[in-house]
Amino acid sequence: MADFHPSTDAILAEIVDAPSPEALEEIRVRVLGRRGSLTLAMRELGGLEPEERRRAGAALNAAKDRITAALGEAAARLGRAALEQRLAAERADPTLPVPFATAGRLHPISQTIDEIVAIFGEMGFVVAEGPHIEEDFYNFTALNIPPEHPARQEHDTFYLPERPDGTRLVLRTHTSPVQVRTMLAQKPPIRIIVPGRTFRMDHDATHSPMFHQVEGLVIDRTTHMGHLKGCLIEFCRAFFGLDDLPVRFRPSYFPFTEPSAEVDIGCSRSAGELKIGAGGDWLEILGSGMVHPQVLKNCGIDPAEYQGFAFGMGIERVAMLKYGIPDLRTFYESDLRWLRHYGFLPLDIPSLVRGPLPGGAG
């Protein structure tokens, strides 16, 4: 076997005296590189007798371990020295101007929720919340949604893995389960507004797998369809900041309300631009209706004694309309440039005292 020169001690001394990381790397390549002296010596072990190969191999491995450890310690030492030298050379200048800090912005979804809550709060509604993961009963059955309804299909609803009893939880497809939980937990009169996240299998410029809804529920002995219309007309005009905003109700169908109605607001479309307000055209923004008697029964409320109305809308949809946001997907792209453009200053948060911001629809 070719001798391993120079000795291990000489190499270790050279490592300790290395003046820079570059010099240290040169030593490593010369000794441990592909054609380094120690590497070549280890390649020749195969030509030795077994006993001599064991003895020489042990000696070379021990030398390699000592050299590798020394290289690591020297690299750390040189790194610390370089850092200390850089820190010693760098000094903070307290006379330099402080860089301008950009103020944070509220996301349009958060802002729109606050605006909606402020409007309905002035009408006596209180905010109610519930879990995102729901039982089938709260999400479908109690709401009079039959087993064969398309909303129950897997192409529309996110289901969790099957449980031992064969049932499956779902990611709530609307915030209506909170209405059911509220009716089961408290006696009328009830007057709640329910903002929150919901989940459905949609994804395009106007749909997202996760989105936000806000729903309202009123239950008492005297509420009727006229109250529903007055409430929603007042909301639409307050939210968009237009006192003369045309609002109309079209007959529709929902399993959980009867009668049911879609709510449209007036608009105009010209040269590809949508403008909210009077203009001879209409745009649907929410659904509503009188709570179905069967839903009241399912929640332990006597429909012969109580009645009420419910409504719901997509928060992203009304935010897009009010603030001129063209693509729903941008709400979730975490682009700070987008947030600086469409976001709101923290002091612009709506409240029951200040009310919502003026309309910015266009």
Task: Provide structural commentary.
The protein is an alpha+beta fold and 362 residues long. Helices cover 37% and strands 20% of the residues. The protein is built from eleven helices and ten strands. It starts with 7 loop residues before the first helix and ends in a 20-residue tail after the last helix. The mean pLDDT is 88.
User: Biggest sheet, in brief?
Assistant: 8 strands, mixed
Number of strands: 10
Span of the ends, CA to CA: 87 Å
Please compute the radius of gyration using only Cα atoms: 35 Å
Sheet/helix structural class: alpha+beta
Secondary-structure element pattern, one letter each:
HHHHHEEHEHEEHEEEEHEHH
Relative helix content: 25-40%
Strand percent estimate: 15-25%
- Low-pLDDT segments, ≥5 res: none
Q: Give the overall average pLDDT.
A: 88
In short:
By secondary structure, this protein is of the alpha+beta class. The protein is built from eleven helices and ten strands. Strands 1, 4, 5, 6, 7, 8, 9 and 10 form an eight-stranded mixed sheet that branches. The protein has a two-stranded antiparallel ribbon with strand order 2-3.
